[in-house]
Amino acid sequence: MKYLCLVYQVETEVDALPGNEYDAIVDEVLAYRNELRASGHYIDSSPLEPVSSATTLRVRHGQMSITDGPFAETREQLGGY
Q: What is the pTM (predicted TM-score) of this model?
């Protein structure tokens, strides 16, 4: 069995972290990834692009529309794939 781990974050909050706090979080994430890899439970990971480069596709009544940015009501961004 394989699992997909989805990580949600509020970009503005992450961007506002002091450098040392951000680095500590990244170090913790990478250490956990290394544990998963060593145990044979890690396959792959990849970040998504920032929200500023997002595009939203919607299909309504058989018509597709493409707009820049994420859903207006979205407060968090999805990271993963």
A: 0.60
Give the domain ranges of the chain: 7-79
- On the 0-12 / 13-18 / 19+ scale of CB atoms within 10 A, 78 is middle
Asked if residue 74 has pLDDT above 50, the reply is yes
Place of tokens 């859903």: 71
Given a contact cutoff of 8 angstroms between Cβ atoms, the answer to whether 6 and 79 are in contact is yes
Tell me the CATH number of domain 7-79, given options 3.30.300.30, 1.20.1250.20, 3.30.70.1060, 1.10.10.60: 3.30.70.1060
Signed CA dihedral, 25, 27, 28, 30: sign only = positive
Residue 70's pLDDT is 62
